[in-house]
Amino acid sequence: MSKPITKLPYFLGAESEAKEAYRTIIDQTVEAITSSVTDTGAYKGAGVDELQSLMGQTTILPQAGTGWDAVLEEVKKTILPNFLRTWSTNYMAHLHSPALLESIASELILSTFNQSMDSWDQSPIATEVEVAVVNELCKLYNFGTDSDGVFTSGGSQSNLSALTLARDWYCNTVLGHDVKKKGLPSCYQRLRIYTSEVSHFSMEKSAHLLGLGYDAVRKVPVDALCRMDMHALKTMLSDDLKEGLLPFCIVATIGTTDYGSIDPVAQLRALCDAYNLYLHADAAYGSGVQLSQTYQSRLGNLGLCDSITVDFHKMFLLPISCGALLIKDKSQFDVFTLHADYLNREEDEEDGYTNLVGKSLQTTRRFDALKVWMAFQCRGKDGFASIIDTCIGNAAYLAQAILSDNQFELAIAPELSSVVFRLSGSCEKNKQVRRELLHHHQVVIGQTVYQGRTYLKFTLLNPLVTHQHLDELLSLIKKLGSQVQ
Question: What PROSITE patterns does the record point to (predicted)?
Fold first, then answer.
């Protein structure tokens, strides 16, 4: 058993006392975490009032610090018992995955060394690792030698970055206007983005931040499988052009948040070529399927896109946050480049030093590429393919089980690993069942709206889920539903 730490050093260093304190803190934390895991449930069930009461009893910033040992005891009492257990096979509410063990080890490494990914002299080996991982990703998604990419905090930041590139590309090449220097053109209120009506809400948020507003986002109707309706899109483009509007970008969703539906990339590329539009793929959900030989064809050829959002904290099972934006034409990153004498000096870059700040919306940025570097080498293509095949196979099994039971209704056949369904009956019944599972059965599932009615959702990102477990959960849902008045 570790000795109590009487005086906590500030940092890890070369001194034996600092090393011992570091080792002790990590060992004690690991012991506290593992001791807190006593069952297979996803959540102990505490409600909002109970958790807010716990926080009300804590002095967040005392006059004098209580020391490490007291803080750890408070964490063991207040925090650890009330965490959501993302590794539980009872957790399937959102695109929120468990974290592979090797990626947790990488989090310890990158947090300990605390590199900042803006300039080479703040992150020497980290910069080179990110460059190497980005190059590998560009090959994986069929981008050519002129491509590039950058790590981001996740899908929303990747999509915002991509739409910024798309806007500036259109303004420069079509309108002859430099947004970077002069701001938005006078016709900015006529610029339009086209995306599925069930696409991620970061499209509207990005349009707001880009000064275009929500009205710039044209939400395209979807077909019976919740994919963008190509006929409706063509009609909208034609009508908008007649109205004097300026279409500049189409966003293909490669795995919608609720349904996992996939927009047809090849058809969208042809349309973009015909209308001189930028094509972005929001593949935050579906990007991991590129590693599956069994299901990769469902994505289409993402190399046809001008940019791709990739998220590693979804189907790749890496810790939050970890995303990337890949672009086919690396020169477009000039949009984000601005040199500062204190950071990314031009003479350094001329001598071969890579300063990644020139590709990112962020300045200070975490070394998230290490998680991908370690996990890719640890698991390999076959390991990730097995994970993804299992999860998509589980979704297909669950959908079939739902279809064969007249007490359930299935929204659509899943393309990825999300299954949206409901108990036959009232919307209120389905809402109550989800709450009952959350607070009294340690089961956390999702809820959404499909065709105006409340539906339940299983987002299957855990390869340890079995068919038997899915059958048991369906039985439990039916039992709880029968008890709702």
Answer: DDC_GAD_HDC_YDC
**107-375 topology per CATH:** Aspartate Aminotransferase; domain 2 (3.40.640)
For the chain, which residues make up each domain, given as ranges?
Answer: 18-88, 107-375
CA distances from 205 to 156, 277, 433, 464 (A): 9, 21, 32, 35
pTM of the model: 0.95
Question: Which tokens in the block code for residue 341?
Answer: 């004498």
Which two structure tokens, joined as six digits, stand for 264?
A: 């047809």
Can you give the length of the chain in residues?
485
Per-residue pLDDT of the chain (485 residues; tens, 9 = 90+): 556 676 899 999 999 999 999 999 999 999 999 999 999 999 998 999 999 999 999 899 999 999 999 999 999 999 999 999 999 999 999 999 999 999 999 999 999 999 999 988 889 999 999 999 999 999 999 999 999 999 999 999 999 999 999 999 999 999 999 999 999 999 999 999 999 999 999 999 999 999 999 999 999 999 999 999 999 999 999 999 999 999 999 999 999 999 999 999 999 999 999 999 999 999 999 999 999 999 999 999 999 999 999 999 999 999 999 999 999 999 999 999 876 655 666 767 777 788 888 899 988 999 999 999 999 999 999 999 999 999 999 999 999 999 999 999 999 999 999 999 999 989 999 999 999 999 999 999 999 999 999 999 999 999 999 999 999 999 999 999 999 86
Place of tokens 């592979």: 100
Are 282 and 251 in contact by the 8 Å Cβ rule? The answer is yes
Q: Which of 362, 287, 364 is nearest to 326 (CA)?
A: 287
> What is the chain's Cα-based Rg?
24
3-class state of residue 193 by DSSP: strand
Q: How far is CA 8 from CA 14, 60, 249, in A?
A: 15, 19, 54
Q: Retrieve residue 204's tokens.
A: 């509207």
Question: What are the E-state strand segments in 359-452?
Answer: 408-410, 418-423, 444-450
Exposed/middle/buried for residue 341 (C-beta within 10 Å: 0-12, 13-18, 19+): exposed
Q: Alpha carbon 354 to chain centroid distance?
A: 26
Q: Considering only CA atoms, which of 268, 367, 387, 421 is closest in space to residue 316?
A: 387
Query: Which of 97, 91, 44 lies closest to 473, judged by CA?
Result: 91
Least Cα distance to 30 among 68, 76, 70, 67 occurs for 76
Q: Mapping DSSP to helix (H, G, I), strand (E, B) and coil, where does residue 455 land?
A: strand
Find tokens 């369906």 and name the residue: 474
Joined tokens for residue 10: 């500030």
Q: Are 477 and 434 in contact (CB under 8 A)?
A: no
Are 430 and 447 contacting, i.e. CB atoms less than 8 angstroms apart?
A: yes
Whether 131 and 151 have beta carbons less than 8 Å apart is answered as no
